[in-house]
Amino acid sequence: MVFARRGGIGRYYDVNGWLFVAPALGLIALFMVYPILWSLWMSFQAGRGMMMKFVGFGNIIRLWNDPVFLKALTNTMTYFVVQVPIMIVLALILASLLNNPRLVGRGIFRTAIFLPCVTSLVAYSVLFKGMFAIDGIVNSTLQAIGIVSSPIPWLTHPFWAKTLVIIAITWRWTGYNMIFYLAALQNIDKSIYEVARIDGVPAWARFTHITIPLLKPVILFTTVISTIGTLQLFDEVYNLTEGKGGPSNATLTLSLYIYNLTFRFMPNFGYAATVSYVIVVLVAVLAFLQFFAARERDR
Amino acid sequence: MDNLVRAYAPRVAALALAGVSFLAVSAAEAKEITIWCWDPNFNVAIMKEAGARYTKTHPDITFNIVDFAKTDVEQKLQTGLASGTADALPDIVLIEDYGAQKYLQSFPGAFAPLSGTVDYSGFAPYKVEVMTLDGQVYGMPFDSGVTGLYYRKDYLEQAGFKPEDMQNLTWDRFIEIGQQVEAKTGKKMMGLDPNDAGLVRIIMQSAGQWYFDKEGKANITGNAALKAALETVGKIMSANIYKPAAGWSDWVGTFTSGDVATVVTGVWITGTVKAQPDQAGKWGVAPIPALSIDGATHASNLGGSSWYVLESSEEKAESIDFLNEIYGKDIDFYQKILQDRGAVGSLLAARGGAAYEAADPFFGGEKVWQNFSDWLAKVPSVNYGIFTNEADTAVTAQLPALTQGTPVDEVLKAIDAEISGQIQ
């Protein structure tokens, strides 16, 4: 009879410990490890529906010659490069404004800005679709106050459709990021700001030289989760464009392309799995770069 | 205690026996056929009518008709088939003809062959062809998507056109009329969703071509009908005689709200047009405009779908019998769905009935069904192949380039490149 030994390598042989974590491990293996490995295996196969066969790196070669994939990749990276910085900066500014203890009704403002991110993705997309229709409220307002002379084709012109997606996701997610910044701001020692104020540091310099550096870990965190979110962007585009990523594939994202390859086109589960691994690799690379960039500045 | 048991035991036994026999009886009687389809004004309403007819002679069968959007039906079907579990699937599902071969070829064994039960010689051959694979015929042919030009008589009259002027148009003439309609009434000629290649498909098929040739190979750069179709859509867009629509319901809204003067689409839209009682008497129907190229006709097809029975269905036999009894034989049923919903079925024997002769008051007393029936006989037959969705996406991707003045030949090349990247 082996008695449980404490500490050292011995605890790895403790049967009781393993029994305690076994249910969790089993579930993780069944619902995480198995699907991941299976999808990896699938990405080396191709074919129509259930008629799959092994193609080696055939799917990866196909990626390079697939104009739709390249278009989806370009669109996704455009959203990422344009939208994430806008949203992060906006969230930072809003957070520091709403952190001002002298601001009247800041609870209401905070709630109002955070509210979009508790609404349903589908509901708000449908609402945006109505608001930005050719004779919707946005166009009629813009025309009434004389900003535009003819209605903007938000949903039927490639450029404006892309702009609309960016507006939609900025509306939805800025408040979410702002909450992280607000929480972090409240952990900054107020005496730092007091010293700065006594030393005559102007407000803008306090923001750039105190707030931003002290928020760096949180900024890094929000950037990474926003990167992951943007690369997986699906609901907004699907609902705004009835699942097509149009007009002219201008709003097509990688996730929507995976959906099309699986459900709308001749089903090719293997190739769809390959495209989803592209997202995995991109997220990993971008997150690594962001950590790397943040660490460099620490020196 | 003993007394109690003695007193209650027979009652408990009787109750249990009653329960068991009740279960047995209900298992033998209540059979529910689950059906997935889309469009409440058309397929769903028609299936309800069919179910009601069948229940009259088979009171033991009940129907559960589930109304989804078309893309949701396709997605749920594809997920269910791929997962390999039959529990999530219905007994009968509606599949659009463009996608039939895709499902049959990529999920072998998933659908029940009906050859042997259904007499397919009674149906329009092109409908049977799209559901045939390796000598077996699957599915029950349903509606045809024969196209027509629906027009608002009142708007055209204001612009100075009579119904005679709408007959046998060319697309160029159609665009000219559209410009005059807008100048005189302020109404656009048609609704157009730049994300939907339906109009391109209608025009292309009216001249006897498709994205694929008879062998199923891509047929793009040398396709005169596709080229002319793209040129026509480009002209409509640059003449700006259309109201842009984003998506299906938006497109339907362009004519139900009275914002446009015409609708060019399949006959199945009739139910939706007639769903606006305040527009009764204002609509007319003419053949669609023709291209000015060889093989051009005034007849085409858009959509059209058929019913398929899942091989895994527990009510497979009942489902097949139901489809065969109603959709395969019931001439009176076809008359009713034609008059109520504008469903032009593909059962040839149903073509001659009184409903086809009838004048429709909604269309000012025109014999529209007779017309659709005549045009149906003239629809050029093409091979839809298995990649229509991919080709459609490639075409819509190039529509903006077309309006920005890119030469059509270059647009065709770009479409060809995208399609060849997609079909493998």
From TrEMBL, chain A:
Residue ranges of every copy of the ABC transmembrane type-1 domain listed in the record: 73-290
Predominant place of localization: membrane
Transmembrane regions listed in the UniProt entry: 15-37, 77-95, 107-127, 159-183, 214-234, 269-293
Record-linked InterPro entries: ABC_transporter_permease, MetI-like, MetI-like_sf
CDD domains the record matches: TM_PBP2
SUPFAM superfamilies: MetI-like (SSF161098)
Membrane topology label: Multi-pass membrane protein
Name of the molecule in the record: Sugar ABC transporter permease
Organism: Sinorhizobium numidicum
UniProt lineage: Bacteria, Pseudomonadati, Pseudomonadota, Alphaproteobacteria, Hyphomicrobiales
UniProtKB/TrEMBL annotation, chain B:
Signal peptide segment: 1-30
Localization of this protein: Periplasm
Predominant localisation class: periplasm
Keyword terms of this UniProt record: Periplasm, Signal
InterPro entries per the UniProt record, alphabetical: Bact_solute-bd_prot1 (IPR050490), SBP (IPR006059)
Highest taxon, organism lineage: Bacteria
Pfam family, one: SBP_bac_8
Family of the protein in this entry: Belongs to the bacterial solute-binding protein 1 family.
Descriptive protein name: Extracellular solute-binding protein
Source species: Sinorhizobium numidicum
